[in-house]
């Protein structure tokens, strides 16, 4: 079987499938160890209850559902909360190093929307540790690894997945893989927007590949704009500033010096939120009787409050607001040392890139496109998509997060559902014959991929098409959305598609970044259209999706997810998929943890 993607989800899936005795090929666009997961900073959410013994899978489940505004796939949220602790302990057994409590257990930190300190972490380099551990473990399992290979088409045979066509980025040679089962683990879509925290790989390839092969996507309107990305200097705009800064006591202030997050606390979080700065500080220092500061409310809310301050003219000089951790020197005698120890990457990031010492000065930050809650629609237990034999896990799959993901829930999602996808894909591979490869599909894929070399005179520059698409999505389908602007976006998408079909490149196929970008366009355009059409369908505001023309949450929209699929004629069809009723025992857990 094939696993496409070597981030946390792909590696975990490959390890599991290989342990089941199946031969596994693992493909990735970059070098092994460089997948986007390596950038994860804050930690892995799992109710280990090491730092606060009141925590349990039930509280984690309730937090995830509340964060997702109850349009999550509740079964996935349940499995995730139940299984995450075992997956973290397993990672520890495989050699992962974690920060420790005084008595030697895995230390857990506070993060937005989590009631108790829940994020297992290694300073602010948790993703690196996760990738290193999974990679070492996977290599010892004997995975067949193909690096710097971009998959451009999924092959199908008689209604099931049959393999993939790819090209190697170094030489531009095509490769065809036949497989009984395929796991997509290709990560996010951030590169569809101008300002993003995502690496160059986040071009929504898995979303595009699955869609074109006939699988459904859901929840695409739910894009997470992380509240704190760097805004200055321009070369690093969008680069993430971890929520860990706020977890360690960092506060948000506007140009008037006001802690504006106290001005707007949503009703459903009021009872859990501190009503004064002193209580908020005590919470970050582990006082079990204190409630969280409003800076640790969910990301969608914090991002919108920041946008409000900027729009009202109370922003920072470079168009953001201030995030200040240096103020803790009023509370801790060794504050500078403490900050450098707890947030080493943030300290270096600001020192090197912006010449700011975060132990003495405030940072300037603003929202950045960070994560997509939407993706391939999967079965909650097996992670199989609506196309038999095609599985998806990690950020490219959808369901667990609903309308908004809580920080830390992605890394645990990768482990829990990466494992499940590997297990069930291996079982599918073992139980099915090798499919046939349709040469016409292979030829069509390669011919299309090479077309940009044929277009010379009057051809479009793929970089310019990509840049125009990113600017358009940022301006018209961003944090605050309106019907007219999204209709305008759809019209412009038509024009961008036509331009992408005329994209031309020069030179040869070896490491030709123009050609690589021309390949990315199909996926970026598919993802952008899916986001726009789904966002138009959801005429309410919920989680990461905010409609200025429908600013309230509407209970009528809490009963379904929005799905898109490709029709035979190649058009994008939007539908509403009813959410199954929540079982009474899970409803009770949510009520008990309100
Ligand atoms: C800066 C930053 C910090 C974050 N911090 C946290 C955190 O602390 N906690 C948390 O829970 N979440 C965090 N997140 C989110 C989390 O890191 C991601 O959601 C997660 O790592 C995605 O993992 P993945 O395995 O799904 O995909 P990725 O890690 O993105 O890996 C995708 C893989 O697919 C491959 N690929 C893609 N397309 C193709 C193709 N066409 N052909 C072949 N291979 C392909 C890539 O090469 C790569 O190997 C953070 C995100 C960012 C940007």
Q: How would you describe the overall organization of this protein?
A:
This protein starts with a strand and ends with a helix. The protein contains 16 helices and 21 strands. Helix 1 runs parallel beside helix 11. The strands form 6 sheets. The protein has a 5-stranded parallel β-sheet with strand order 6-2-1-10-17, with helices on one face. A 4-stranded antiparallel β-sheet has the order 16-11-20-21, with helices on one face. The longest helix is centred in the last third of the chain and has 25 residues, at 513-537. With 594 residues, it is of the alpha/beta class.
What is the oligomeric state here?
Answer: single chain
Low-pLDDT parts are none
Alpha-carbon distance between the two ends: 43 Å
What is the average of the pLDDT values? Answer: 96
Write out the strand line-up for the largest beta sheet, numbering strands in chain order. 6-2-1-10-17
């Amino acid at each position: 079987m094939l696993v496409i993607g070597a981030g946390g989800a792909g590696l975990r899936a490959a390890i599991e499938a290989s342990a089941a005795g199946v031969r596994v090929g693992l493909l990735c666009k970059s070098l092994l160890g460089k997948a986007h997961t390596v950038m994860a900073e804050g930690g892995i959410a799992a109710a280990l209850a090491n730092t606060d013994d009141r925590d349990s899978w039930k509280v984690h489940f309730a937090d995830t559902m509340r964060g997702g505004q109850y349009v999550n796939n509740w079964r996935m949220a349940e499995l995730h909360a139940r299984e995450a602790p075992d997956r973290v302990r397993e990672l520890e057994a495989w050699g992962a190093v974690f920060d420790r409590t005084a008595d030697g257990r895995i230390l857990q930190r506070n993060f937005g929307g989590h009631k108790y300190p829940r994020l297992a972490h290694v300073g602010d380099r948790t993703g690196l540790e996760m990738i290193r551990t999974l990679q070492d473990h996977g290599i010892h399992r004997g995975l067949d690894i193909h690096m710097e290979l971009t998959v451009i088409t999924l092959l199908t045979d008689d209604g099931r997945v049959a393999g993939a066509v790819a090209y190697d980025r170094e030489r531009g040679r095509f490769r065809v893989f036949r497989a009984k089962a395929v796991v997509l683990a290709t990560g996010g879509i951030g590169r569809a927007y101008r300002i993003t925290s995502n690496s160059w790989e986040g071009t929504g390839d898995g979303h595009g590949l699955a869609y074109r092969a006939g699988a459904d996507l859901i929840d695409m309107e739910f894009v997470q704009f992380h509240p704190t990305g760097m805004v200055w200097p321009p070369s690093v705009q969008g680069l993430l500033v971890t929520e860990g800064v706020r977890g360690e006591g960092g506060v948000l202030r506007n140009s008037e010096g006001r802690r504006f997050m106290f001005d707007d606390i949503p009703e459903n979080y009021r009872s859990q939120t501190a009503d004064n700065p002193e209580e908020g500080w005590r919470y970050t220092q582990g006082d079990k009787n204190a409630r969280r500061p409003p800076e640790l409310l969910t990301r969608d809310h914090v991002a919108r409050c920041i946008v409000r301050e900027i729009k009202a003219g109370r922003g920072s000089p470079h168009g953001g607001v201030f995030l200040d951790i240096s103020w803790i020197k009023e509370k801790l005698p060794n504050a500078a040392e403490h900050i450098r120890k707890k947030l080493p990457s943030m300290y270096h990031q600001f020192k090197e890139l912006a010449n700011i010492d975060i132990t003495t000065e405030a940072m300037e930050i603003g929202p950045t496109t960070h994560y997509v809650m939407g993706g391939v629609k999967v079965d909650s237990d097996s992670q199989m998509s609506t196309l038999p034999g095609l599985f998806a896990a990690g950020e490219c799959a959808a369901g667990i997060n609903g309308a908004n993901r809580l920080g830390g829930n992605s890394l645990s999602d990768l482990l829990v559902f990466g494992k499940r996808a590997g297990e069930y894909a291996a079982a599918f591979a073992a139980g099915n014959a090798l499919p046939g490869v349709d040469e016409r599909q292979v030829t069509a894929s390669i011919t299309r991929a090479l077309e940009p070399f044929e277009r010379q005179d009057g051809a479009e520059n793929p970089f310019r098409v990509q840049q125009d698409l990113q600017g358009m999505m940022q301006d018209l389908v961003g944090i605050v959305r309106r019907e007219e602007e999204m209709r305008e976006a759809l019209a412009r998408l038509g024009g961008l598609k036509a331009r992408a079909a005329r994209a031309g490149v020069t030179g040869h196929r070896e490491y030709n970044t123009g050609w690589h970008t021309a390949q990315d366009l199909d996926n970026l355009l598919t993802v952008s259209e899916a986001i726009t059409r789904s966002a138009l369908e959801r005429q309410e505001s919920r989680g990461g999706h905010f409609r200025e023309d429908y600013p309230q949450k509407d209970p009528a929209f809490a009963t379904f997810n929005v799905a898109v699929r490709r029709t035979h004629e190649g058009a994008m069809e939007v539908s509403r998929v009813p959410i199954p009723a929540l079982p009474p025992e899970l409803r009770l857990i949510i009520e008990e943890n309100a």
